[in-house]
Specification:
single chain, alpha+beta, Double Stranded RNA Binding Domain, four-stranded mixed beta sheet, 2 helices, about 40% helix, elongated
Length: about 110
């Protein structure tokens, strides 16, 4: 499973952040990893410096499942770490449904 991390110009992409994302993905997606070819994280600061707001950190995560359409989840929070974790957890729920349906149709 390949993990890609993209950031907007208002979000700093550091090696520590990438390692944290990889750790979260490995832990949270361990049951679905065999089905995944790529997981792509898009991190952004929605409000940036021009607008204030409490939940301005956004994580959109997209998972590519072999031979299927991508599954996408998003979460916004004050803290980018929380946004990453919660978006990944939402992705797990979506993947579980899609993979389960796929396996039911094959049976």
């Amino acid at each position: 499973m390949q993990i890609l991390v993209n950031t907007d110009r208002h979000t700093t992409r550091s090696e520590a952040l990438v390692q944290r994302i990889e750790a979260i993905a490995a832990k949270e997606l361990k049951h679905q990893a065999a089905h995944l070819t790529r997981v792509e994280y898009h991190l952004s600061d929605v409000n940036s410096e021009t607008r204030a707001g409490a939940t301005d950190k956004r994580c959109l995560v997209e998972a590519r499942v072999a031979t299927m359409k991508p599954v996408v989840a998003e979460h916004r929070s004050e803290d980018i770490q929380i946004a990453i974790l919660e978006a990944t957890r939402k992705l797990v729920q979506g993947l579980s449904k899609v993979i389960s349906k796929s396996q039911d149709h094959r049976s």
